[in-house]
Amino acid sequence: MNSTVKNTEVLGNWLQAKEMATRTERKIDYPPQSPMLLSLHADTVTGAEDPSKNGVYKLDDFLSAHQAERDAQIRARKDANAAKLSMLNSKNPTLNRNVAPLKPVAVGARSSKNTILLHEKYQALGIPQPHFTYNGGSDSGWTVKVSFPGLDLEELQDLSEERKFNSKQEAKEAVSEKALAILEQLEKEGKVTKGRKQKPIGGEPTAQHEKKEKEPGENYIGQLLEFQRATSSPQPTYTDYQSGKHFTCLLTIEGHAKPFGSLDTLHSSKKEARQDAARQAVESFKSQGLWPEDFTSVGGIKKKKKKPQSPQPAAALREMNSTNSMSSSFSLTQTPTPPPTTSSTTISAAPDTPTSYAHRVALLATKLSLSTPEYRFTPHPHDKDFHTVSCFFRNGGPHHEGPIGEARNVFGRKKAKEECARLTLEYLQGVLEWRLREGERVMAGVSGGCRCWAGGWGGLLMEREGERWGLGRGEWVMDGREGMIVMEIRIWRLRMRWRWC
Questions:
Q1: Rounded distance, CA 241 to CA 278, Å?
Q2: In the CATH hierarchy, which fold is given to the domain comprising 347-444?
Q3: Cα(464)–Cα(483) distance, rounded to whole angstroms?
Q4: Residue 442's CB: how many other CB atoms inside 10 A?
Q5: Which of 13-22, 360-369, 449-458 holds the top average pLDDT?
Q6: Helix or strand or coil: residue 209?
Q7: What is the DSSP string of 5-55?
Q8: In 268-403, at which residue ranges do the beta strands (DSSP E only) sit?
Q9: Are 144 and 158 spatial neighbours (Cβ–Cβ below 8 Å)?
Q10: Interval 118-146: pLDDT, tens
Q11: How far is CA 400 from CA 128, 404, 418, 427, in A?
Q12: How confident is the model at residue 265 (pLDDT cuts 50, 70, 90)?
């Protein structure tokens, strides 16, 4: 029994040894590691080997060793960011705040002068309203044609301009100028005459569908337009400028050297820029005292009626009275002329007659025994709308033949003629006053030995010591002592009777 237990123990030990041998064969063969330990809080190595030899460094040592490479990488990164920023600034100017602001560039000039004149012309003539037809677009440019329906005139049909325009308004202004010139020429030739206004069928007014835009605040553009028309002044011209997405405007008016507006004040739209320029023009007129005091935003501006001209100077009336008294003190051999009337004793025209300067010049020239005034026009070589006008009196002698009252470089034939007539009227009034003064001087020194005078208003003829003075026009009878010879003479193309001793 003891041998059996012993054998069992031997067998158990053998199985245990075999199992341990099997486990030993299955283990992985790892390389042996060095017995080195590093301290986290110490600068020295606790092991036997230096870690830098195996590629392990401290952070400060690594950065100091590669400082040059790190600085080069930082500079390269900054240069790349600067290039990207410059590219963004070129695409969007608002991001670049250090660059100087862009200078505004003119994108077009806006003026409605010819369009307004064309509408006034066809309304005055009573002809149908013209029809405008537009073609094109904002990218390719605009073209326009205008026709006058209802008129059998080929000259006024399908009028157009060859070139293209940036906007419809510029195209309409250009073709309106061309149509206005042709319409005025046809009116002078008599092909277009003023017609009567036709009433709509059924007695009902035609409906006009107009789109009215509500504008915030005061409409300075409309106020300035009414003011210029009320004073018969030329219409303003608006020149638009663009700077990026903003706009500015300068307003120019003929006769004003300095434009209204500013290129420094930017607006979000062209309309606001024009309103601001018109506002500055209105404020300038108000500061000069030219703006009407009774103006209201509802009633607008109306033209002032011309006041009747004042009567002639007192010297002319005294001359008339003295002439009438002398004519009654002598025994005349001819039937006396009728007494003067009020209309004949005034230099200017009556209130119910035309009061233009040209009409007044014609009346005064007749009283001064001058021929009908002749106005000679000379257009400007570069702009035919400006004229130089002078007045001439045929057979007026070296002093009055002309040129008189020269008006230089005035816009429009009618205004140029009126300006010349105004200057000519001042000249003729001076001639009349000089003649009246000389007549008074001669009459003050009349004595018994002088050959004298008689007559009615309209002219006066005297002789003193061989000097002859003729004042105006009329039928005269010279009277004096008995035994004088009656002679009929002509002085300044007037037939007068003279009694000579």
A1: 15
A2: Double Stranded RNA Binding Domain (3.30.160)
A3: 19
A4: 20
A5: 360-369
A6: coil
A7: HHHHHHHHHHHHHHHHHHHHHHS--PPPPP---B-TT-SSB-SSS-GGGGT
A8: 374-379, 386-392
A9: no
A10: 888 888 888 888 888 888 888 888 888 88
A11: 48, 8, 19, 10
A12: confident
Q: How would you label 108-138 residue by residue, b for 16+ Cβ within 10 Å and e otherwise?
A: eebbbbbbbebeebbeeeebeebebeeeeee
Above pLDDT 70, what percent of the chain? 59
Q: Would you say residue 30 has pLDDT above 70?
A: no
SS3 463: strand
- Residue 480 has which token pair? 């004096």
Distance CA 395, CA 383 (A): 33
What pLDDT is stored for residue 345 in this prediction?
37
In angstroms, the CA 440 to CA 327 distance is 16
pLDDT tens digits for range 147-163? 887 777 888 888 888 88
420: which residues sit within 8 A by CB, 6+ positions away? Answer: 375, 389, 390, 391, 405, 406, 407
Per-residue pLDDT at 279: 92
The per-residue DSSP string of 368-401 comes to TT----EEEEEE-SS-TTEEEEEEE-TT-HHHHS
pLDDT computed for residue 61 by the predictor = 82
- CATH 3.30.750.24 correct for 107-193+219-287: no
Which pLDDT does position 70 carry in this prediction?
85
Task: Kindly state the average pLDDT of the residues 438-454.
Answer: 59
Task: Tell the residue number behind the tokens 């000679």, with chain if given.
Answer: 376
Domain limits, the chain: 107-193+219-287, 333-342+447-501, 347-444
DSSP letter string over 225-265? HHHHHHTT-PPPEEEEEEETTEEEEEEE-TT-SSPEEEEEE
Query: Could you give the 3-state DSSP secondary structure of residue 350?
Result: coil
Q: Are strands 260-267 and 246-252 parallel, antiparallel or unpaired?
A: antiparallel
Measured distance CA(96)–CA(245) in Å, rounded: 16
Q: Residue 96 — pLDDT band, cuts 50, 70, 90? A: low
Residues ≥6 apart with Cβ < 8 Å to 371: 365, 393, 394, 395, 396
Q: How far apart are CA 32 and CA 391, in angstroms?
A: 130
Contact (Cβ atoms closer than 8 angstroms) between residue 435 and residue 455: no
Confidence band of 49 (pLDDT split at 50, 70, 90): low
